[in-house]
Automatic annotation (TrEMBL):
<protein>
    <submittedName>
        <fullName>TTC5 protein</fullName>
    </submittedName>
</protein>
<dbReference type="InterPro" id="IPR011990">
    <property type="entry name" value="TPR-like_helical_dom_sf"/>
</dbReference>
<feature type="region of interest" description="Disordered">
    <location>
        <begin position="141"/>
        <end position="162"/>
    </location>
</feature>
Length: 162
């Protein structure tokens, strides 16, 4: 993967206006992201390379694979609106290709299920829900429950961030 990434970077340096090279670089970063520990930096670089491919080359912008691959990454990052848009774009660009439409329908189904579970609080009632929502015993937190580690917080006290 590192070798393919180095080759893709070299191709981009040779011709920064070649959208195909930027697309390949984005794919190399996606591969590294999934195989190399889901580094946020790899995800950012992949998304930037895909965006650059679209910016510099109209042919690359019309590549349904680019949109499908970016949508896959966005879905994994839980950026669902962008994932849905990418899957729709891939489907529009390649109407005969079933994969983007199938994945779009699956994602819509998943999001629908998620919304229903949130609305019904996981279909749990009363005493059972209170038991699940109660505090987690410190031994179950493993290293997170140790001295100096993060402490449990009530859901209402959580805020976006690290």
């Amino acid at each position: 993967l590192r070798e393919s990434l180095a080759q893709a970077e070299a191709a981009v340096r040779c011709d920064p206006r070649d959208g195909q090279s930027w697309y390949v670089l984005g794919n190399a970063h996606v591969s590294l992201f999934f195989a190399g520990g889901q580094s946020p930096g790899s995800a950012r670089r992949a998304l930037a390379a895909y965006a650059q491919a679209e910016r510099v080359d109209p042919t690359a912008a019309a590549n349904p694979d680019l949109h499908l691959n970016r949508a896959t990454l966005l879905q994994y990052l839980e950026r669902f609106q962008g994932a849905l848009e990418g899957l729709s774009r891939a489907s529009d660009l390649a109407p005969q290709w079933e994969e983007p439409r199938r994945r779009h329908q699956q994602l819509i189904g998943y999001l629908g299920d998620l919304c229903r579970l949130l609305e019904t609080r996981g279909k749990l009632r009363g005493k059972r829900r209170r038991g699940v929502a109660g505090p987690v015993p410190l031994p179950l937190l493993g290293p997170l429950g140790g001295a100096g580690g993060p402490r449990p917080s009530p859901i209402a006290g959580l805020r976006p961030g690290p």
